[in-house]
Amino acid sequence: MKIFLLAIATLFNLNCFSQNYKQTDDYVKSLGSLDSLNIATITDTLTYKFAKKEEKARAIFYWVANNISLDLKAAKGNDRKATVLQIIETRKANSLGFSLLVQEMMSQANIRCLSVDGYVKTEIDDVPDEPNASWNVVQLGTSPTEWYYVDAAMAAGYADKRFTTFTKEFTGEFFFSDRVAFNLIHFPDNTAWLLGPGAKSVKEFYSQPVIHNAAIIYNLQKISPVKGLIKTRLKDKTDFRLEFISTPVVSDVSLLVGDAKRSPKAYKMEYKTAGNVIEFSFQFKIDSDYPFQILIDGKPLATYQADVRE
Fold first, then answer.
1. Rounded mean pLDDT of 102-119?
2. Which of these, 98, 40, 94, lies nearest to 72 by C-alpha position?
3. Sheet hosting strand 238-244, strand order edge to edge
4. pTM, to two decimals
5. 11-20, 22-31, 128-137: which range is least confident on average?
6. What CATH number does domain 223-309 carry, 2.60.40.10, 2.60.120.260, 2.40.50.90, 3.40.720.10?
7. Is the confidence at residue 146, as pLDDT, over 80?
8. How far is CA 142 from CA 50, 108, 147, 193, in A?
9. Are the C-beta atoms of residues 10 and 145 closer than 8 Å to each other?
10. Of 33, 171, 264, 298, which is the most buried if we count CB atoms within 10 A?
């Protein structure tokens, strides 16, 4: 009975914040950028009308993600000297700056929130010498299960590989994200902040495919192949399996094969759906090394590296 109750509590905890935040988001959007205000006044303006900590936290997350842009120079250089005052003035930050700003604003709203350093990857098996990303964990109660993930930096948009351009694109699912999906994209420097199942080490994390924002949007749970580097032969087919929390509403699955130098080509997959699982196969047609992406309804889900030989 205890195991059953724990399972129900865990399931509730993972899904109770999947509600629609439109009312909160619309209110924060109506406030605008609040350019002339200091951080304390901004926080109070965002949160005073909300009674629940969850709503206050969402208001802060939404405002930060939509009013702070990625500082490309600081992100590329992995600058660890961010201050919240500078961020409010410049409206730019790297991921550490985003997390420190969220932490400060949550604290001012009497919400316990910590900044977590760790790793996100853009390359497979290329492990950096030090953490290259930061995000937040937010606690709404006293139970160890009441910590939740927040990543306002990734919610704000994305940069290209060389950190030369930043595209503003809000992804609200990085607020109180599903833990399994979040851990496919992030790995904490301190594994105490690995709130759910995930990689066992940084090396294992970097051996996996690069997972993109669509994993959070669709709540990806497992992906196969597990390794990001796929070694295969021209005559063989590679099988892919995507497992989600529930049956995904998907109209198109495709592979984008090759990089910018090779003029990538899109291949529409004939896939089958069984419950919460999507499966398909692909036979590579070029004998070489090259990246490829799995796209779900045109959104990048995962990037692999193919090593194809005759």
1. 97
2. 94
3. 220-224, 238-244, 277-282, 272-274
4. 0.90
5. 11-20
6. 2.60.40.10
7. yes
8. 21, 19, 9, 16
9. yes
10. 171
